[in-house]
Amino acid sequence: MNIARAEQHDFPALIKLWHECGLTRPWNDPENDLRFALKGPASTVLAGKVEGEIVSSVMVGHDGHRGALYYLATAPHHQGKGFGRAIHDAAVDWLSSQGVWKINILVRNENEKVHGFYKSLGYGQNQATSFAKQITK
What we know:
By secondary structure, the protein is of the alpha+beta class. It contains four helices and five strands, in the order E-H-H-E-E-E-H-E-H.
């Protein structure tokens, strides 16, 4: 798998992958998320390709203190091949190159399969509660 920064022409394939993996929500516009992540120096989107097909992705960014991963996905028909771990490691390398030393990840409670994936990568569950507030423009 070749991993590189996503480009605008990758948007349809990335959005399709995120839908296939159940990562999208009606209140989030994934194309807007992509544009926003790719326009600033504190974030990027990485795409993993096999023979030109996007099979894995991660949106990665930081706030100057902690890094965050979003939309980490591997196409269902490619899961179990190490692509998720590889795209994760590329995101960690990107954060490290930015001087970031800690990563926070939010995983939905019902997504237990992914809980196991992150535990296998060395993540532990924080004893914290995540709060959110939707703001509109």
